[in-house]
Structure to design on (813 residues):
């Protein structure tokens, strides 16, 4: 009996000792809840430009970025949103949600480490304001238990409203804003007391992942998170489904009060990046951070000033003409070799809430217009293709019907609505002609072009299957920052760069916390091809067709440049570069309203031109370094082929070695005409009556254009025959329909006379036909003996089939 009693006593003593050891392990060094006030100070973070000049002091000496406000000045909706999102049982639990803790421990146990949280609002307050810096970032069961114990103590010593006030005034909301007042000022430019349900729900969703949900850096994710918060409020009974739906529809107008800040959009991007680099605990432990960015403040101020001045000119033209309704502009300047962002203007006026000034349009996806054309042509000219295009590839710039992958007709037109006949790729790209660009895309395929764009850094456009040939004219949304970086591939000789904004970070003791290292360049484009694209885009003579000889695209130095304008003038762009600087400019409206008659050359062009001249003033001119593997050969300017003996218009063109033309030009022919009849000279034409003339032998697709331009076609001369001979026949004539477009639906209007609703039928062909018959549904519509082979047909309901038949002199057809 005594022995059994001693065993029980020993067990009891061991249990007590174990409990004491466990207690010491769990609770040693824990602060008293009253010490919570010691942790309310927010560390200073200084953001500077690359030369150390201050852009933003996160905790300003006079105003700061953390404001303590009474709970009754915080809207009820924001309080409810916070409780519903972070701790649904806040008012009932003793500081710890036992079910949540057990659930978290079970998940963590199954995961092999501490993966899930389950923290209440009180636990989050205890963790952030009572635990020391090292312990706060630990993910261990011990830290969880100590946090829970402190939360239980806090619940005993403080009222629920006091704990909620601590949470709302001290929690981190991203963008270096601590507490809801600083967050409200940062994101919405107004006191927290004025927040709507929609705005409060967005802020309540930030604290779990400030970097992920930052609305300036990721507005789509922030909006999705807001909808989750509203749904939780409905489940909690705080709002009705109707109120939730109304809040979800409410436009979110981001703005900011005028904190002393330079380059505000850039600073907000850096702040969001810091959220992902350092935890709040690490920032607090640092004693303060100095963040040296890549920005050049002088360049930034030039860009800011030029953007504002250009918008003023567009909306209040000096000549007193109509406003162009352009209220937003963005500018990005990048070092194409290191990826450093040297200037970034996200909007002309960050503090103008009426036009969405706080929206960073440098990272907002918009339609790029023709700014994608260099990438499409680069894909067409790739040496990896079996028959790569060259700068001398001839492309028809005449009305062309393309059939999309859905079997529908697509007929692009040039911005000027003019056609230019046979053009070479150099001129088509430099002058930004639309029809040849679509032909290039049709040749390479949308997927190939988009894959190259993605390789160059444009990865926001989605699935290639969602696009058709209109992609050539800017069908996919891109960000100005990404587009400017993509053009760096051309500037640096074919390598993709990743834009960077932070050079280094040091703490209060001067110790390095981060040192940026430029990423290894990834070659995505043949070096020779990158140079050739740059050579084309810097060719002022080649762009004369569309822009004239002295446009704003011409600088006092070698510079490659491309503009872009979308349909209905929603967006316009100018992106251009020298070997060491790439600058992209966007002008438009943040709310996507159309401008009035503003193009890339008239809207974004002046900003690009004056910025480039300002920042490069006094800098020696640099030319694009030509790599080996390029050869120069003479070509005929109309066909792009070797000129032979007849071609009168020639020039030297650059080619990737092995792609220079070997075929001789066959567009130009020298013929003898009878001076009296204008027909080809025949055997009866006296030598004195013969006139030598240069004529064109163009493919039939160019015949309507050539005739409209008054050019003499060999085909027309052959059609008329020789002097003294009834008619001459060419070998191998061809014939094709050019109107109406295939696979096209036409609508008969009840409001117009039926006989006024007619459709033109037309065929084109070489000489050699004595007549051409136009057929419709198996019946001859018209029989024609000379060009143009055309007639009109009144529309009739139904599905119709048409074709043309050419007949030779010997009866063949």
């Amino acid at each position: 009996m005594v022995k059994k009693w001693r065993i029980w006593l020993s067990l009891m003593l061991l249990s007590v000792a174990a409990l004491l050891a466990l207690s010491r392990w769990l609770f040693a060094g824990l602060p008293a809840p009253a010490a919570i006030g010691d942790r309310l100070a927010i560390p200073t973070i200084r953001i500077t430009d690359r030369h150390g000049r201050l852009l933003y002091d996160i905790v300003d000496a006079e105003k700061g970025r953390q404001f303590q406000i009474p709970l009754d000045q915080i809207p009820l909706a924001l309080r409810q949103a916070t409780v519903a999102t972070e701790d649904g049982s806040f008012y009932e639990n003793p500081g710890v949600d036992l079910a949540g803790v057990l659930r978290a421990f079970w998940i963590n146990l199954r995961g092999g480490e501490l993966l899930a949280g389950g923290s209440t609002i009180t636990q989050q307050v205890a963790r952030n304001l009572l635990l020391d810096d090292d312990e706060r970032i630990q993910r261990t069961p011990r830290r969880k238990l100590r946090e829970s114990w402190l939360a239980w103590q806090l619940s005993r010593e403080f009222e629920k409203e006091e704990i909620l006030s601590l949470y709302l005034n001290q929690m981190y909301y991203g963008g270096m804003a601590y507490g809801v007042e600083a967050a409200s000022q940062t994101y919405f430019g107004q006191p927290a007391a004025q927040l709507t349900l929609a705005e409060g729900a967005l802020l309540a969703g930030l604290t779990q992942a400030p970097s992920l949900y930052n609305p300036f850096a990721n507005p789509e994710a922030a909006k999705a998170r807001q909808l989750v918060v509203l749904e939780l409020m409905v489940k909690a009974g705080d709002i009705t489904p109707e109120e939730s739906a109304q809040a979800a529809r409410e436009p979110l107008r981001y703005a900011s009060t005028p904190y002393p800040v330079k380059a505000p959009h850039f600073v907000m991007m850096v702040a969001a990046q810091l959220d992902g680099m350092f935890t709040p605990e690490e920032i607090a432990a640092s004693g303060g951070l100095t963040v040296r960015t890549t920005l050049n403040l002088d360049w930034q101020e030039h860009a800011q000033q030029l953007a504002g001045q250009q918008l003023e000119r567009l909306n209040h033209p000096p000549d007193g003409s109509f406003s162009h309704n352009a209220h937003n502009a963005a500018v990005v300047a990048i070092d194409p070799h290191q990826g450093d962002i040297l200037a970034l203007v996200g909007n002309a006026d960050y503090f103008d809430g009426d036009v969405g000034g706080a929206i960073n349009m440098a990272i907002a996806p918009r339609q790029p217009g023709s700014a994608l054309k260099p990438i499409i042509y680069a894909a067409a000219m790739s040496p990896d293709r079996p028959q790569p295009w060259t700068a001398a590839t001839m492309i028809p710039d005449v009305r062309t019907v393309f059939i999309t992958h859905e079997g529908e007709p697509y007929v692009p037109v040039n911005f000027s609505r003019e056609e230019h006949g046979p053009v070479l790729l150099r001129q088509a790209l430099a002058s930004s002609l639309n029809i040849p660009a679509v032909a290039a895309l049709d040749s390479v395929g949308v997927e190939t072009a988009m894959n190259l764009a993605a390789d160059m850094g444009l990865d926001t456009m989605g699935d290639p299957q969602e696009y058709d040939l209109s992609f050539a004219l800017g069908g996919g949304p891109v960000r100005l920052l990404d587009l400017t970086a993509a053009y760096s591939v051309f500037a640096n000789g074919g390598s993709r760069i990743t834009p960077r904004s932070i050079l280094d970070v040091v703490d209060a003791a001067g110790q390095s916390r981060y040192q940026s290292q430029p990423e290894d360049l990834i070659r995505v484009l043949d070096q020779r091809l990158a140079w050739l694209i740059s050579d084309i885009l810097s060719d002022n003579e080649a762009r004369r067709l569309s822009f004239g000889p002295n446009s704003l695209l011409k600088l006092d130095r070698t510079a490659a440049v491309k503009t872009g304008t979308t349909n209905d003038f929603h967006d316009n762009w100018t992106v251009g570069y020298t070997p060491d600087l790439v600058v992209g400019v966007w002008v438009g409206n943040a709310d996507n309203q159309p401008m009035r008659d503003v193009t890339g050359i008239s809207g974004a062009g002046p900003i690009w031109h004056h910025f480039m001249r300002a920042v490069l003033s006094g800098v020696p001119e640099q030319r694009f370094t030509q790599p080996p593997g390029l050869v120069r050969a003479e070509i005929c300017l109309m066909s792009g082929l070797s000129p032979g003996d007849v071609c009168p218009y020639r020039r030297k063109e650059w080619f990737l070695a092995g792609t220079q033309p070997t075929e001789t030009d066959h567009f130009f022919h020298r013929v003898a005409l009878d001076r009296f009849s204008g027909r080809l000279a025949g055997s009866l034409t006296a030598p004195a009556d013969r006139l030598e003339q240069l004529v064109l032998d163009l493919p039939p697709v160019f015949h309507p254009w050539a005739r409209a331009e008054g050019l003499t076609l060999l085909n027309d001369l052959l059609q008329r025959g020789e002097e003294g001979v009834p008619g001459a026949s060419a070998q191998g004539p061809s014939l094709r329909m050019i109107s109406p477009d295939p696979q096209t639906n036409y609508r008969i209007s009840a409001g117009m006379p039926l006989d006024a609703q007619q459709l033109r039928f037309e065929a084109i062909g070489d000489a050699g036909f004595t007549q051409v018959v136009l057929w419709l549904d198996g019946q001859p519509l018209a029989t024609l003996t000379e060009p143009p082979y055309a007639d009109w047909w009144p529309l009739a309901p139904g599905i119709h089939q048409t074709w043309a038949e050419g007949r030779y002199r010997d009866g063949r057809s």
Q: What stands out?
A: Confidence is low (pLDDT under 50) at residues 60-64, 112-117, 726-732. The first strand starts at residue 45 and ends at 48. The CA atoms of residues 467 and 475 lie 7 Å apart. The radius of gyration is 36 Å.
